[in-house]
From TrEMBL:
Family, similarity comment: Belongs to the class-I pyridoxal-phosphate-dependent aminotransferase family.
CDD domains for the chain: AAT_like
Protein name in the entry: Methionine aminotransferase
GO MF entry, a single one: pyridoxal phosphate binding
Organism expressing this protein natively: Flavobacterium commune
Any matching Pfam family: Aminotran_1_2
Xref: SUPFAM superfamilies: PLP-dependent transferases
Cofactor(s) listed in the protein's UniProt record: pyridoxal 5'-phosphate
Length: 375
């Protein structure tokens, strides 16, 4: 008997596999295809010859924990304790899984805002808890009345994703005020804030839970070095949470992975001394603007993109197919892979929208646009 009877192969795996089979340009899965910073590779090369290949302490490499505390202070003016409020994780996904396993109990309810990343639901189900899916508005703004209506005495956690995958939407000040009001009404709810794209925002600055004094003592914030530094294959992220929550999270973490790859932790620790996170947003904004320019005269309608490295487009003027079939035909007939947005909804809501990843070198974006322009 399966513990996850309704879980199927991830749409990201399906589309990436098809892209490889048909030699298509893969704009589906969210990973960069350009080289990482040479300064980082030089650090790795140097550290490879040093004594950094054994277990680190369970919570993380101590110098890296201190650097993360400094990064949070620099970025958000929040003071966190490196020893008790930070945990280095095997990617943000493991951090999210571990947080849910540690804090959610059988029969609890967890609110997920759709469209949502597919890694949220499984750990809830494995807790024998109930995921409660609440759809965002069609413009991807939160419907706070519906979210509040979904809350009850059984609600243990609300998961938010900001900046938002797959839509590129970011929450604004009014959203956080509404969230704070909601948390005043439900004082036992915990917030899990997935902020892996925190440094990839454009015209409007990302507002982090780190900056919200009314929320952060009841919140777990998940971050990703993989997303921030274009090293998704390293699978390294971190959690920040108040000590009373982090104690429980660490209990699960120690039996799940115990400690994270030592070389990657040491390398990122050294890299944080010489890199500026302030430049990341402008780097990806140039990518976004260039990709939007390339598609501006195509038949695709470009939706707003406020953050992340994803561009959602409507193909309504091109086809009446459902978005999954359209993406399959896009690979087979036109050689470009995308992700259908319906897979991010509980019931497969189909608005004829698909998602492209623009974290690619310019030559790849240009060739992809050339193919898409012919449709």
């Amino acid at each position: 008997m399966s513990k996850l009877p309704n879980t199927i192969t991830s749409i990201f795996t399906v589309m990436s596999k098809m892209a490889a089979e048909y030699n298509a340009i893969n704009l589906s899965q969210g990973f960069p295809n350009f080289p990482i910073d040479e300064k980082l590779t030089a650090i790795v090369a140097q550290l490879a010859n040093e004594d950094i290949h054994q277990y680190t302490p369970m919570a993380g490499y101590p110098p890296l924990l201190s650097k993360i505390a400094s990064l949070v202070a620099y970025s958000y003016q929040r003071t966190v304790q490196a020893e008790t409020e930070i945990l280095v994780t095997t990617g943000a996904t493991q951090g999210i899984f571990t947080s849910i396993q540690a804090l959610v109990e059988s029969e609890d309810e967890v609110i997920i805002l759709d469209p949502s990343y597919d890694s949220y639901e499984a750990p809830i189900l494995l807790c024998n808890a109930k995921p409660v899916r609440v759809a965002l508005n069609d413009d991807y703004t939160p419907n706070w009345e519906n979210i509040e209506a979904a809350c009850s005495a059984k609600t243990k956690m609300i998961i938010i994703n900001n900046p938002h995958n797959p839509t590129g939407k970011i929450l604004n000040e009014a959203d956080f005020e509404a969230l704070e009001t909601l948390f005043e009404k439900f004082p036992k709810i915990i917030l899990l804030s997935d902020e892996v794209y925190e440094y990839i925002t454009f015209e409007e600055k990302h507002i982090s839970i780190h900056t919200r004094e009314l929320l952060r003592n009841r919140a777990v914030v998940a971050s990703s070095f993989g997303k921030t530094f274009h090293i998704t294959g390293w699978k390294i992220g971190y959690l920040v949470a108040p000590e009373h929550l982090m104690k429980e999270i660490k209990k699960v973490h120690q039996f799940l992975v115990f400690s994270v790859n030592s070389l990657s932790q040491a390398a990122i620790s050294d890299y944080l001394d010489i890199v500026s996170v302030d430049e990341i947003g402008s780097f990806y904004q140039q990518k976004r603007d260039y990709f939007r320019q390339l598609l501006s005269k195509s038949r695709f309608k470009l939706m707003p993109c406020e953050g992340t490295y994803f561009q959602v487009v409507s193909y309504e003027a091109i086809s009446n197919e459902n978005d999954v079939d359209f993406c399959k035909h896009l690979i087979i007939e036109h050689g470009v892979a995308a992700i259908p947005i319906s897979n991010f909804y509980e019931k497969g809501k189909d608005l004829h929208l698909i998602r492209f990843c623009f974290a690619k070198d310019n030559a790849t974006l240009e060739e992809a646009a050339r193919r898409l322009y012919k449709i």
